[in-house]
Design a protein that fits this description.
Strand order of the largest sheet: 1-2
Distance between the termini: 22 Å
Helix content: 55-70%
Largest sheet: 2 strands, antiparallel
Number of helices: 12
Structural class: mainly alpha
Radius of gyration: 20 Å
Order of helices and strands: HHHHEEHHHHHHHH
Number of domains: 1
Length: about 375
């Protein structure tokens, strides 16, 4: 537990202190955010605000993890695990795709970066490599970082996907989660605050898994996650990195995380769900992200349907994702942010409750 706290505190301090350095550097370099011309009018004043702040979140998460393992190495308690390194690879890989997207926007002075195909191709490479590697590296008990079974709060033994099926599912989870977080990152601090809550929940969940690990045989009430303590270290570091970044990203934001941050956090979230064997539970824990994504799907689907039927496309919302609908309806930005944080918190609390209820149900 002390090691988890050390990782969290280290990441928090690094994030709070390092982010303003990034702000000053990006301002000098002119790395400012471009704003959609068809978006809410109030967003136009945000043009030029430094972006790509996800660099600070990634660096802070890595710092917290490295410090924690540096201390354990001094104590002779072992080093990083395969699961922890795989999570960091997925976070940095997805963040790199987002970084390229952000850089193109800045370089070309427009709000469009990578084309959708290029972005999905980058996510495909990172997601598939992660999935393939996650099925390797058995430990002394024969456990690998990931399982080929579909999971909820643990593996569902009756649903086996096979190696190919798992790789496909892992890619879909990574792509869906990265793009969901990316869609949610439209208001100051909204995505950072919601992500911090989800990572906080995963810190608790993986710590419970660590304290109740199975031996060589799966029994009711225990868990088969390969390296739960390392999952907890990464989760705690990411949670604190988000909180530290939020200090500077809260409305009015001095820096945006950009696609660099949203895709890195989404990828990390997906990776933790896969390696902790809570894939379906992620839908509940990330309820806010699911709602935001669903609003975009409904908007696009209804517009295409009505245009095909009547020749004139109709919209369900004034603008999607749904937080922009409320902006155009007259809600203040800070009001939307706080209320959406409440929704995110309720979803996280409900998801954590589902996990804990299943845990205590086995005594």
């Amino acid at each position: 537990m002390k090691t988890i706290l050390l990782a969290a505190v280290s990441a928090l301090l690094f994030s709070i202190l390092f982010t303003p350095v990034i702000v000053r550097y990006f301002r000098l370099r002119g790395f400012g955010q471009e704003i959609r011309n068809d978006g809410p009018p109030g967003h136009l004043i945000k043009r030029g605000t430094p972006t790509m702040g996800g660099v600070a979140i990634i660096a802070s998460t890595l710092f917290g993890y490295i410090v924690a393992h540096g201390v354990t190495a001094i104590r002779g308690e072992g080093g990083p695990s395969a699961s922890g390194l795989l999570l960091l690879f997925l976070m940095v890989g997805c963040g790199a795709v987002g970084f390229v997207d952000d850089f193109i926007k800045i370089r070309r002075q427009r709000n469009l970066g990578l084309r959708a195909r290029a972005k999905f191709a980058g996510q495909l490479v990172v997601g598939v490599v992660f999935a393939i590697l996650a099925l390797q590296f058995p430990n002394s008990r024969g456990l690998r970082p990931a399982s080929t079974h579909l999971s909820y709060v643990r593996d569902i033994s009756s649903i086996s996907l096979g190696a190919v099926g798992f790789v496909i599912l892992a890619y879909l989870i990574v792509t869906a989660t990265t793009n969901s977080v990316n869609l949610t990152d439209g208001l100051d601090g909204l995505a950072a605050g919601a992500c911090a809550m989800v990572f906080g929940a995963y810190t608790l969940i993986t710590f419970i898994q660590f304290r109740n690990s199975c031996g060589t045989v799966s029994l009711p009430g225990c868990y088969l996650a390969r390296d739960p303590i390392d999952l907890a270290l990464v989760s705690a570091s990411a949670m604190s990195a988000c909180f530290g970044f939020l200090w500077w990203n809260a409305s009015p934001a001095q820096i945006f995380m950009g696609d660099t941050g949203s895709m890195a956090l989404g990828g990390l979230m997906a990776g933790i769900a896969i390696l902790s064997r809570t894939e379906l539970l992620l839908v509940v824990l990330g309820g806010l992200f699911a709602v935001v994504t669903l609003s975009g799907i409904i908007q696009t689907g209804w517009f295409k349907y009505t245009r095909r039927r009547t020749g004139t496309g109709q919209r369900v919302f004034k603008m999607s994702p749904i937080h922009h609908h409320f902006e155009l309806s007259g809600w203040q930005e800070i009001t939307i942010i706080v209320r959406f944080w409440i929704i995110a918190g309720l979803a996280v609390a409900f998801g954590t409750g589902l996990f804990y209820a299943e845990f205590i149900g086995h005594g």
